[in-house]
Structure formats: C-alpha cells, structure tokens
C-alpha cells in the first residue's frame, strides 16, 4: 500500500500516524510548539529555580506552531541569541585582530585564528591568487572563498596603505561566516517548526563562542545545512527530484569546502534503499559528484601541484594533537613499558604514516558499514540526522586530525539528531575544557615551559572523545528504541527526511524482515 505524505502527516490522517507510532502530541492537528521546560528533564529541573515549567495558562503556550501572535516568538528569540553568541565570539577574538601577536598573546588570550594568520601565510597580503600563485592547504572552495575576500582587501590596502589589511580581512570573513551561522540556525528553525527551542542548543553553544572563526568551517556548515533543508523538501514529483538535485549541489559545494558534508550522502542513499525511493537519492549523489568535479577542475587541470597540496598534506601528516591516536601515543610505555629504543604500537604508527592512514580509513569504513547495518536492522527506519551525526562523529573519532574548530561540524547534526540538553551540555563542557587545555599546550610549546603536565591535556582530549562517543551511544539507543526519540515525540516520522518522511519500507525489505512462517506439514507415514 502506498501513501502520500506532507510535512509528516499523510492523507489518511491519524490512522497512518498511529501505525508509525507517533506520540499524541505529534498526532494532534496543528501540533503545538514543544517546550523544553516540560519535555526535557534537565530543563524541567532547572526551571524549578525560577518557579517551575510554563503553566497551562501561559501566553500562547498551546497555540499551533507559527501562530503565537506576538513579536518575540521562540524563533526570533533564538535568532537574537545566536547573534549575541557571535558578538561574544568577536569580542573573544578581538585581542588578536590587529595581527600584532606579541608575547604569545594569541595563546595567552586564546584568540588565535587561522583566518588572520593565513592571510599572510598564503600570500594574500601580497596579492597572490590562491592555487595559481601559491598552493593552498584546503579544498578548492575554501581557497576560492579566501581569495574572493583577500584579494579585494589587498587591492584596497594598496590604495590605502594606512589600513590594517589583516584586520580588514579577518572582520570581513567574520561577518560572512557569522551570517552563515545565523543562516544555519534559521535552517534548524525551518526544519523544527514545532521544536524551535532545539535551535537554541546551537545558538547558545559554548563551542560556537570559542571557535566560530578559528577557520572557515562555518562555510561548509552553512552549505551542508542548506543541503539538508533542500533534501527535506523533496517529494515524489518533478519538483521534488529537482530539489534532490539542489540538495546534492549544496552538499557537493560543502564537500568542496571541507570534505565532511559528502558523508551525509551515504545515509541518504541507505535510507532511500530501505524505503524503496532510490531515484531522488541517486539524483542527489550524482549532483554532488558532478558539483565536486566542476568546482575542482578549474584548479586541478592548470595547477595540479597546487591542487594536490591538500591531499599531500593529509597523506603525509603524522598524528595530530587531541586525537584517539595522540591519546594512544601518550599511553605507550605507561601501560606496558617497552625496552629502550622500542616503539609502542601508536608511536610505531606515527612513524609509519602510511599504515596509520590505512588503519584510520579501515576503522572509519567499518564504522560506516555499522551505521548502514543499523539503518537496515533498526525496528523502524532511522531519521536522516541520526545517521548523518553517527557517520561524521565516527570520522572525527578515528581521524588522525581533530582540530579545535571541527566541533562545528557536529553542532547542527547533534541538534537535529538528539535535541536533549543534558548530554549536549556535558559534551560542550568537555569541548571548553579541551579548548583551554589545547591553548595551554600551544603556549607551552611556544615558550618551551609547560603550562601543566601533559596528562592534563590528554585527559581533556579523552573527555572530548568520550562525550562524543556517549552522544553516539544515545543516538543509537534512540534508533533501536524509537519511542525514546525526542523528535518523534513531536513529529510523526522524520521532518528532515523529505521523500522518506512517512514512507513505508520497500516491499523487498518487508519481505526480508517479515518472512512468513513455514507451514507445518503432516508427518509422512512410517512404513515397514
């Protein structure tokens, strides 16, 4: 039996929603806005400090989403909060904006940013064109972005030698990246109209305060968010297929800026196979692949060595700070001391980088296979954001590089996958601890005087890794026990799923998972 679904509610109404196991809130026509002070345990407990959760007669409490009838709606409050967060980030980075990093101020004030440092390191201050005049260590769309802002700033500086080019470059980048962060919050609000306060997890994130403009990661975050929004609008018609292509283009552009948005295509394809709606997924994957090729060709053909700089750097790079492998190196010799001159297993991998690369790829590949198996074996088809979060988190956990700003990759996916405040805040506390410990490590390396014992930094890195792993565990639990999924307590199925939202599993899948029982046959008579 086929069904048509619109915004998670099909033409058969509550019967279909009951079949999907939707909560009473999700089954109500014109479902009301979710209020964390009622639905989230941590927020409900904290609300007791200010008088308890919102009461039954609170203004506009039970009005349908989008009909609150007042100016300061939840969405506008969240958008204002993210603007405040980004302003605080700009203030936190302000000691470094002039580029005069004397006495290690970039470490003592924890305000270092690649954006300012690479304006000079990549030759933008001399008018060098990325890739054409100087190899760039990032994927091409990030290089294009750097040049699109950096070259006009350099031209302006030539005519106005009194301006601080580096500071202008940083502030223009901060303005555009902040706009992308605000746009990401707007996308989350659009995807969660009945749960607008979920977006506050992103808007108030301490990690956003500390790392928003450390690098250009928000470029990929914004493109990936718009790609998810386009996919969420896909339907089984020509316009829906075109939106699937647009989703692929946006995810491809994100992958051309930072590789990780391409990982979202895997969950889209696996879920589409389970639902029997493969065409939109294939269109998205094809559009993403074509986009990546077209964006890279203008650099890869005329400047192959500059284009290959990103791949060469990542292939030859040893174990980086704060990774699983770095923690292992620290433990080498402390758990099972070896003879003088012998290398522990992790130190051996650091020397044999090729083996480290293959082992990292293998573990990530196995994790992806595990996520695919989870998608196919779960009692109910998982939501797209859940699988996307697991894949990107697995990449970070097993990667040999886990820079401080990579937390931005997970932020929107974590909000969409599991909007629960308790575990999210624990993870954010761990990220703040790692941020502080990391700058202590940088300062110690710059001054050759350790700020604290190495074990403190390793402990902070371990806490970060463990909290991400715990979040993965909670997401997996919600997949295996969908009745505990906060999003499905509000929506009938998957508000991010697009063409997958409300779809039944494919006939082949239903036959595979629900094989008819064997028919008992009468026993053959025994003959002498």
From TrEMBL:
Keywords: Cell membrane, Membrane, Transferase, Transmembrane, Transmembrane helix. Coiled coil: none annotated. It is found in: Cell membrane. The chain crosses the membrane at residues 71-91, 168-189, 201-232, 238-257, 278-301, 358-377, 384-402, 456-476. It is a multi-pass membrane protein. The keyword S-adenosyl-L-methionine does not apply. InterPro entries: GT87, UCP010361. Pfam families: GT87. Residues 1-38 are annotated as: Disordered. Belongs to the glycosyltransferase 87 family. This is Glycosyltransferase 87 family protein. The lineage of its organism: Bacteria, Bacillati, Actinomycetota, Actinomycetes, Micromonosporales.
